[in-house]
Amino acid sequence: MKTRVLAVALVVAAAIIAAPTAAQAKPTCASGTVCTYSAYNFTGTRTVTTVNSSTRNRCLTLTVRSIDNASSRPVRTYSGANCSAGDNLVNPGQSKATTAINSIWIT
Question: How far apart are CA 70 and CA 29, in angstroms?
Fold first, then answer.
């Protein structure tokens, strides 16, 4: 009997250990902001930029690996510093889980 209980306990423990974990959900980015993350898949240090007259139409230098655009403005991302090289567009409501960004321009 003890052997059977031990065997069942081992099978249950193995099933728990082998069970896949759910993918981490993307954190919520407040409306009117652009959220950037220092690591891929919306992890690492999060920086929230409120889109307003002081953040629009200028280059913001920052190094990030994922971005979520919850603003109403398009965001241009650049692989180079000072908004140079590798111009890509992240439209309102879009996000990129894996990218290499060194600067952004909010239009």
Answer: 6
| Residue 7 within any structural domain of the chain | no
Tell me the pTM: 0.75
pLDDT in tens, 17-71: 343 344 567 889 999 999 999 999 999 999 999 999 999 999 999 999 999 999 9
Number of domains making up the chain: 1
Domain span at residue 100?
29-106
Contacts of 57 (CB under 8 A, 6+ apart): 105, 106, 107
